[in-house]
Amino acid sequence: MGGGCVDSLHGRIPVPAPAVMKLLEGFPVRFAGPASELTTPTGAAVIAALADRNDPPDDLVITRTGYGCGSRRFEDWPNLCRVVLCEKGSGRENGRTFEVDADIDDMVPEDAALAVEKIMESGAADAGIMPRIMKHGRPGYTVTAVCDDERLHDVLNAFLVHTTTIGVRYHQVQRQVLPRRQYGVATRYGEVVVKEVTMPDGSLRRKPESRDLEDISRRTGVALAELREEVRRVLGTGSNGDQGREDR
Fold first, then answer.
1. Quick one: which of 34, 116, 186, 195 is 20 to 30 A from 206 by CA?
2. Residue 56: its pLDDT value, please?
3. 64 Cβ neighbours under 8 A, 6+ residues apart
4. Strand 97-104 relative to strand 169-173: parallel, antiparallel, unpaired?
């Protein structure tokens, strides 16, 4: 970002300039370098328009590199800007993933089940309960959730509001996932959402949405096993989600 002061039409102003500070609100920055204007409002505007506020993922693949040099000379500091174009490596998601958990020994099971539901509604990608023995030999459980950094605040609040814990632990984790999509399949009993993942060898693994099957079973009286077989039959004949709704 640089430092010091520069002269402008408005008089002498501090570096970074007020416009730069405003444009880069919410971005991680580094105050280093010589006492000069290293980041201009124009450069800050480009970053604000094109850059992501999240830290880059760990598994980046460099595709191209560009350099730009300035005319001003600094002592012990190169006046050059380097831009690296990267692609995300396969298997890991953009942004940061956090694991959140709390140990609880004073909440009834019915409330714990609702707490997990509320944690999922707050934006967690997954949540669950693991039974364990707590201090003094008390039976209890650990409530755990996984979420991205954009929903971390909401998930933490859900833990504190909907459980009896007075503190929550969280830390960043790596999460590797398979490419996936979901789409609707039309069966003779009604439409069922199918979740499809692509395996590392390129093969596909499909699973019908359990809640859709349960809803149809309650409405029609058809057994869940028969409904699953019906979905397999439809997928096997090629009547798949390309002819229904699709959510990638």
1. 116
2. 66
3. 84, 85
4. antiparallel
Which residues, other chains included, contact 89 with Cβ-Cβ below 8 Å and sequence gap of 6+?
57, 59, 60, 61
* Residue closest to 64 by CA, chosen among 39, 83, 38: 83
First to last CA, the chain: 40
| Tens digit of each residue's pLDDT (9 = 90 or more) over 197-220 | 999 898 999 999 999 999 999 999
Residue that the structure tokens 């503190």 belong to: 167
pLDDT, tens digit, 9 for 90 and up, residues 54-113: 666 666 778 889 998 888 888 888 888 888 887 766 555 556 899 999 999 999 888 999
Of 173, 192, 174, nearest to 183 (Cα)? 192
CATH numbers and ranges of domains, the chain: 5-88 (no CATH), 97-173 (3.30.70.1380), 180-247 (no CATH)
Could you tell me if 246 and 184 are in contact, meaning their C-beta atoms sit under 8 angstroms apart? yes
**In sequence order, what DSSP letters do the residues of 65-105 get, joined into one string?**
EEEEE-S--BTTB--EEEEEEEEEPTTB-SS-EEEEEEEES
149 by Cβ neighbours in 10 Å (0-12 / 13-18 / 19+) ranks as middle
